[in-house]
Design brief:
heterodimer, A: mainly beta, seven-stranded mixed beta sheet, four-stranded antiparallel beta sheet, 0% helix, 49% strand, B: mainly beta
């Protein structure tokens, strides 16, 4: 069974770059159709889609974040990464990676447990 | 972006009750509508995809329906483990967007 696990610093200073990794186990990123998205959720609030990458490295981003976001995939390590630049307190949230693809690239059937990121000096 | 609005924002119901949550979109979604359940401190869980298809392993008391701009999630016979927040999500037009959530509480 495919599992996802997010990792990265829990505290990032304002104006710096947030960097997270999502490790995929139980299946290969490069096998078949693979899509993985990053989604975030501020405490007590709703879900916001950040962007998506497929096994070829093709990406799609939320226009609201596109100027600051980079998502990439490393098939040799079976992981994907998220970089969000010029962060502010508004970027404080739980960040999830989630797999799409079986029922559509954005129907997320497997999620990581999430990693909490706080932006503060 | 397509706006999706859920109603109600919260509800209280008793175990065994029938619960319906509505998701309305600013334009037609052509059934590209998914439903998720989220419990506190946990990641969301896919319940329903393509408006009415039950995700594997999800109890049959959950059902989805609707078309066009209006979609409904129904829980027939609420169980203690169903108390959670539910989100709809449209994937018809990028970027995919979520409703604001409906919190289902114990009455």
């Amino acid at each position: 069974q495919v599992q996802l696990q997010e990792s990265g610093p829990g505290l990032v200073k304002p104006s710096q770059t947030l960097s997270l990794t999502c490790s995929v186990s139980g299946g290969s990123i490069s096998g078949g159709s693979f899509y993985c998205s990053w989604i975030r959720q501020p405490a007590g609030k709703g879900l916001e889609w950040i962007g998506r990458v497929d096994a070829t490295g093709r990406t799609n981003y939320n226009p609201s974040l596109e100027s600051r976001v980079t998502i990439s995939v490393d098939t040799s390590k079976n992981e994907l990464s998220l970089r969000l630049s010029s962060v502010t307190a508004a970027d404080t949230a739980v960040y999830y990676c989630a797999r799409g693809g079986v029922w559509g690239p954005d129907a997320f059937d497997i999620w990581g447990q999430g990693t909490e990121v706080t932006v503060s000096s | 972006d397509i706006q999706v609005t859920q109603s109600p924002s919260s509800l209280s119901a008793s175990v065994g009750a029938r619960v319906t949550i509505t998701c309305r979109a600013s334009q037609t979604l052509s059934r590209y509508l998914n439903w998720y359940q989220q419990k506190p401190g946990k990641a969301p869980k896919l319940l329903i995809y393509a408006a009415s298809s039950l995700q594997s392993g999800v109890p049959s008391r959950f059902s989805g329906g609707g078309s066009g701009t209006e979609y409904i999630l129904t829980i027939s016979g609420l169980q203690p483990e169903d108390f959670a927040t539910y989100y709809c999500q449209q994937t018809y037009i990028a970027p995919p967007t979520f409703g604001q959530g409906t919190r289902v509480e114990i009455k």
